[in-house]
Description:
By secondary structure, this protein is an alpha+beta fold. Helix content is 35%, strand content 18%. Strands 4-3-2-1-5-6 form a six-stranded mixed beta sheet, with helices on both faces. It has a three-stranded antiparallel beta sheet with strand order 8-12-13. Strands 9-11-14 form a three-stranded antiparallel beta sheet, with helices on one face. α1 crosses α2 (50-56). The model has no long low-confidence stretch (mean pLDDT 95).
Amino acid sequence: MRYETIPSTLFITNRRKFTSMMEKNTIAIISSNDIKHTNADDVMGFAQNNDLFYLSGIDQEETILVLYPNAYKSENREILFVKETNEHIKIWDGEKLSKEHTSKISGIKRIEWTNDFEKILQLIAFEADGFYLGHNEHVKRATYNQQTLQDKTIQWCKEKYPLHQYHRAAKITRALRPIKASQEITLIQKAANISIEGFHRVLKAIKPNCKEYELEAELTFSIIKNGGTRHAFKPIVASGKNACALHYNTNDNICKAGDMVLLDFGVCYGNYNSDTTRCIPVNGKFSERQKEIYSAVLYCLKEGSKLLKPGVIPADYEKQMAYLVEEQLIKLGLLHASEVAKQDPEKPLYKKYFMHGTAHHLGLDVHDVGLYSEALQPGMVLTCEPGIYIPEEGIGCRLENDYLITDIGNINLTQEMPIEIEEIEDLINI
């Protein structure tokens, strides 16, 4: 792997926590993600099922984890199945994980080949009363009209063992993953540090008439140079009016003098992610109007991020953040206080210029798992990303940092990424 070795103690601890929350005498089956094909025999880059990685540390396809904490025989309590290699695979694709290496990464003693999964499971399944099965529960975006390996596992298991009880593994991982261990925070910080380096490269590269994708290339260079796995998501490099499209990412326009560029980007390192946004002037100098809007968003970021602390309910935080942005929109002359005072609460006027949430969990997923109905706790990592978008002026501004919640407030993991107007202008014009 490109990233530094993660201590197996992390995954051992994660499994212990997971199994302690399982119903008595049940088996958990967590399978890897699929390899997706493009055209002909080419494939997309592999990304592991994050629940499987969280519990095993294995970053390889065709992997299955079986946990049966109440098994009569101790060797059946943790079994990890990995793809068996052969000379053909070795010649064409290179080495796959050996049983010894798999055990060292995961801390699991019993390693078997995936081809033997059904046979071995049958030997223990009828001792158990139920199964915990995994599934990607971001169905609205991720799994609509798709059949994944996890779907096939669920279907196969229910056909093979129809009278067992079934439970959602995601209900447990959703409770565990939001609270990060120290090793996880270190990995997120590493991802953030690579983002910071990439942003400095962009500040050196930006100039009138450069292409958006040239700036994207600077971010990509930094990721690969520092052992990052990939972009955390397809980066947004949106100049001028493009910044008013929240998920613009074609990144193929020319950055014109006088425009501002919005960069929303992140790094995946060791399967953990950063997520940051900055806005910079193409010609190295913010216009007066750009300064006004940028300063308003920066004020909301600084004040809003103070609200990210233990005990705060995310929904209450979002209301406070919306109020901060609304207040700034009035000062910018985009809204009138008298109209805001009599607005329909169900259709607030600020949504014309600010239409998204500003805090989400961050970790193995960029939009990491967690219940937004529950109060923030120490160990959680969240983003804060207010924005103001004015299509009629061709200006979109969003600023985003990553924060670790602590007992006394929060720590900005992206503190070293330049954000003040004067610092940005100075760094571009060096």
